[in-house]
Amino acid sequence: MEPVSYVERHMVGIHLTYTRVPRGLIIETVYPLAPGESVGCCVTTGTTVHVVNPKGHQIVDLWAFVASDPTEYLSMAHNRTAHYSTRFQAGHVLVSNRFKNLLRFTDDTTDGFHDSFHAACSAQSYALFGSDQQHPNCEDNLQKALHDAGIAIQITPPPWNLFEKSFADEDGLIHDGTTSATAGDYVELYAECDLFMVFSACRSTIGNIQGGNPAGAQILLNRYDNAADSY
Ligand SMILES: [Zn+2]
Question: What would the pLDDT profile of 197-207 be if each residue is shown by its tens digit?
């Protein structure tokens, strides 16, 4: 997918719904994602990534691979070990499957629910849950993005499912709720090294996790102007 610049999108009259742009932020690239769409992109060290939920009904599966060696990637299990938590919070530095720092979690406007339990949706997962949903799934989206980028890795690491509300109870059972993300909510991440990242706007409606039909997302790659007076 070709990136669309912030200026170009305004020139053609498409209004960005990202309404809470932090001061000092220079938006360099915007990837609008309709439900079921995904994008793979190179994210260089020092880039700030915003994953935006414009309308509040969209879960976004996120993957990050080390650019120089994609067998090293963001791993949910390693982050649960590193942070001794099932939910990662602003202030955490997210690590790889070799405990290398990949992404600094710098800001979160939600109430903090982002799922680290669930596998990506796939043709097999829809079959498992008895759904006949026939639409793009997040696993296929990841594999296509990797293939298009020439990255020869065929595993699908469990993604970090932004805006997905899940929790485990005292008996170890996992429960899903409807996302509590509201329009304009976003997660901000800072790239600690050169990465290839994939973002997939999930189409699943199993369990009403999206609070109705999913409504799309925006991925922004930015840099902060350190000279801005607010920083
Ligand atoms: Zn999905």
Answer: 999 999 987 77
Tell me, in angstroms, the distance from the centre of ligand 1 to residue 44's CA.
26
Two structure tokens written together for 35: 């439900």
**Regions in the chain scoring below 50 on pLDDT:** 4-19, 229-231
| This prediction's pTM | 0.87
User: Which residue, among 165, 178, 183, 189, has the nearest Cα to 87 in the 3D structure?
Assistant: 165
Q: Which two tokens stand for residue 223?
A: 């840099």
List Cβ neighbours of 225 (8 Å cut-off, separation of 6 or more). Answer: 24, 25, 26, 231
Tokens 């949910």 -> residue: 76
CA 97 to ligand 1 centroid distance, Å:
22
**Helix segments in the chain, DSSP class H:** 6-11, 76-83, 123-128, 138-148
Dist. CA 155 → ligand 1 center (Å):
16
Q: Torsions phi, psi of 178, nearest 5?
A: -80, 140
